[in-house]
Amino acid sequence: MIEFRKEYFADERDDTLNEIGKPTQRQDMLGHVTGRSPFFDDHLFDGLLHLKCLRSPHHHARIRSVDTSEAERMPGVRRIIRARDVPHNLNTLLSLMGFGLDDEPMLADKKVAYVGEPVVAVVAESERQAYDAIAKIRVDYDVLPHVLDVEEALKPGAPSVNPTYPANTFTYHEKYDHQKLRFGDVEAALRQADHVVEGRYQMSPIEQAPTETCGAIAAPETNNRYVVYTSTQALFFSLGTAAKILKLSSNRMHFIGGTVGGGFGGKVDSIHEPMAILGCMLTGRPVKFIWNREEEMQVGAPRGAERWYITDGVMNDGRIVARKFTGYFDSGAYTRLSSYAIIKSVGHLPGPYTIPNVSADVYCVFTNRTPATAMRGFGITGVDFAIETHMDKVAHRVKMNPIELRLKNAYLDGDMKAHRRLAKNTALVECCQVVAEKAKWSIGPEYRAMSSLKGGGGERAAIPHTIIDNRGLARPASGLGSYQSPPAPGYTPAPAYTPPSYSPEPQPVRPYEPAQAAPPPAAASPTTTRPAGNRFSSISGLRRR
Amino acid sequence: MPVSVRTFQGAEEAERALAASRTARYFGGGTLVMRAVNAGDQAFDTIVRATDPRLRQIQMQGDSVVIGAGVTMAQIIASRDAVFLAPVAKVIGGPAIRTVATVGGNLFAASPYGDFAAALLALDAKVVPVGGTPVPIGDFLDARDREPRRIVLSVIVPRPRDSRAFRFVKVSRVKPKGVAVLSIAALLPTNGGRVSGARVAYGAMGGRPVRALAVEQALEGHTLDEQGIAPALSAATEGINPQTDALASEWYRRQVAPVHLKRLLLDQRR
After folding, report:
1. Mind spelling out the 3-state secondary structure of A269-291?
2. How far apart are CA B17 and CA A148, in angstroms?
3. If you average pLDDT over each of A205-209, A353-357, A507-511, which comes out highest?
4. Which residues in chain B touch residue A134, judged by CB atoms under 8 angstroms apart?
């Protein structure tokens, strides 16, 4: 039962909506309910071969030697693929957007850094023959100490997980070992607060668990091309990644996607297509690479675990005057999309509240766990759990109705957010009011009378005097680039992300001037010029300004 | 190595073939064996199966019902004689699994599977091996992983005199057909309103279905009300060693077991 509260924001809408509020049939529904939707695995090929991977049984180990001689003689085996067969065996997904360094091999070469990391691939006539051959491969591992906890991984002397980032932290803006947010003077505000409320919040990784496991079929096509049927949920991302890893011009690959048997973020990481295509290139036959359920659960990149520490400075009347975050994202052994999740996350802080002093240090940490990736609102959902649980804790401390506490601190249209964008279309106030009404949770008349359109802006639009620091300058990464090979011909990397430069001097308070058109106050300081390169948008990654 | 399938008409022949090879697996309904085949399990290369009609029979024998080991969950649900077991069979797997999953296979399923075996344990069933004498299910489960591999022909299940005396709950996080966080089966005969000779068994609270002996003792002579069951609830996990797995930690299982036991004993709808 949908209920529309059309009294809200009535003048912001012309109410000539054609879809919202009306039943609309999904375009793929008929195919799904009649069982006719074609998934990648429904495509049949004569002489199809099957690719399976030998995977690391260790959290962390050096590979001393690999002996595939017995496996090569097994019946049905058509090709054994090793790291040296991969044309460009080091990649990071976001390099397509010029963000981050290549850090992950498609097949492990010198060492493995998580349980399930692929070491050798076998292409055989049947799945069973591939598995049987894998059982005959001998890998001599030199087991290394491992680290599975984000804070343990940051301690001096912790095992170094990822050779590209030897200190176990992703490097932000080519400078810091964490992503920084500074808005106002948190330490001073905490000293003046009536209460200081602290909390620690831990989220586990979550597997997307699609019904259709990840996979792809690659087959030779005419004109020296390869046709690829894939379960990907990001077709051009997958195409770009395959082009880079295989050093193959993208116009030689014909990618066909479309029907995804459940994705939820877990089918963004493009590993299957380049592996299947490589098998096809090396055998000249169609090759299928599909994970079994155990692989999907063990090595399918989940939503990463997050740990958050929140410290709030709160006045007796419930006003939150300072909020300090320290966050640790468990990226697993490689970067994938965790580095970007943190950019999103920090842009979201301190949640939908107007707090005059906010700071955050958020670390993307490498551990010997399965690499983490995208999943529905990643970067936001975890910290929102922490923030909202913390709001209840604050309400309890100052003995306030928790909904009233949220309303008292709610952001309003025209307020300055900590990442220096003006809040608009906020509507948190209205949501809280309706929730209170539906839950029969009484709130005071002054809170019932609030509106997100009233009371915002003005003083609340100012960027406060901000204390900034250079804490966490990344240690020079000595091993940096040692894994890097020259870029593939035909592959043009995107221009590198140029970070805005921070001025070390404290900046004066600058009020928002609504009369001014065009450029919104975005930079950290008025003296900072905005770089011409790519910037992250909060929703879809990079956008060009 | 390719996997070969050997099919025998008599259960006795199948048992001989199984005993003769260390790399043979017996195929009940295939829900566990075929999963291993598909994943390339190298531990076995031969599947042994039997088409013996005795394996598929359900028949009355005095106050008990004799259920062939090859009887599927779907057959149990459709059977009039085994109607008291239908609520248990209905929560094993989804519809597709229930058409192949067998009573005998469930006896060998490692935690968190084996909920049907937990129900049989509470009902004091006996397990009949091929060519052997019936053994109490508790003894069978104790020896399951140690003794030479035998094929089970059938189970003999005493029918509860009062159908309301047998209760079963499977607790799962995914409804209606998730894997068990735990399951509880209880036979609660009463005499003048007081429990007499209770048998309570847990599934997924250890490596195999286990009796909750402390709970049984604490219920003896008590009424099934809040006050009467209080000692049983405080003994809910006494002598039990729940496992930690992907579904729940040992701690969590210990915390929720008394909650679900309480609802079961008070016959509260969940």
Report:
1. CCCHHHHHHHHHHHHCCCEEEEC
2. 47
3. A353-357
4. 40
B209: tokens are 């279905």
> Which residues of chain B are at the A interface, by a Cβ-Cβ cutoff of 8 Å?
1-3, 37-40, 42
- DSSP characters for A181-244? EEES-HHHHHHH-SEEEEEEEEE--B----SSPSEEEEEEETTTEEEEEE--S-HHHHHHHHHH
User: How many Å apart are CA B107 and CA B126, to the nearest integer?
Assistant: 11
pLDDT tens profile A175-217? 999 999 999 999 999 999 999 999 999 999 999 999 999 999 9
Chain B positions touching A128 (Cβ under 8 A) are 2-3, 37, 40
**What single-letter DSSP state applies at residue B35?**
H
Question: Coil, strand or helix: which one is B57?
Answer: coil
Mark out the alpha helices in A353-472 (DSSP H runs): 381-397, 402-409, 428-438, 445-448
- SS3 of residue B248 by DSSP: coil
Minimum Cα–Cα distance from B37: chain A residue:
A128
Positive or negative CA dihedral for B6, B7, B13, B18?
A: positive
Per CB-CB distance under 8 Å, the chain A contacts of B38 are: 127, 292
User: For A235, phi and psi rounded to 5 degrees?
Assistant: -60, -45
Burial bucket for residue A487 (CB in 10 Å: 0-12, 13-18, 19+)? middle
Give this prediction's pTM.
0.83
Per DSSP, the three-state class of A250 is helix
Contacts 24+ apart (CB under 8 A), A175-178: A175/A473, A175/A474, A175/A499, A176/A472, A176/A473, A176/A474, A177/A363, A177/A472, A177/A473, A177/A474, A177/A475, A178/A361, A178/A362, A178/A363, A178/A364, A178/A472
Q: Which residue of B has its CA nearest to A205?
A: B246
**For strand B126-129 and strand B135-136, is the pairing parallel, antiparallel, or unpaired?**
antiparallel
Rounded CA separation A524/A545 (Å):
17
Contact residues, chain A to chain B, C-beta under 8 Å = 52, 127-128, 130-132, 134-135, 292, 294
At A504 the pLDDT is 43
Q: Which two tokens stand for residue A284?
A: 């000249």
CB-CB under 8 Å, A132 with B40 = yes
pLDDT value, residue A14: 80
SS3 state at A395: helix
Judge whether A215 and A300 are in contact, CB under 8 Å: no
Question: Token pair of A536, please?
Answer: 């992250």
Peptide bond into A118 cis (omega under 30): no
Partners of A111 in the β-ladder: A62
Q: What is the pLDDT of residues B214-268, one digit of tens each?
A: 999 999 999 999 999 999 999 999 999 999 998 999 999 999 999 999 999 999 8
State whether B3 and A134 contact (CB < 8 Å): no
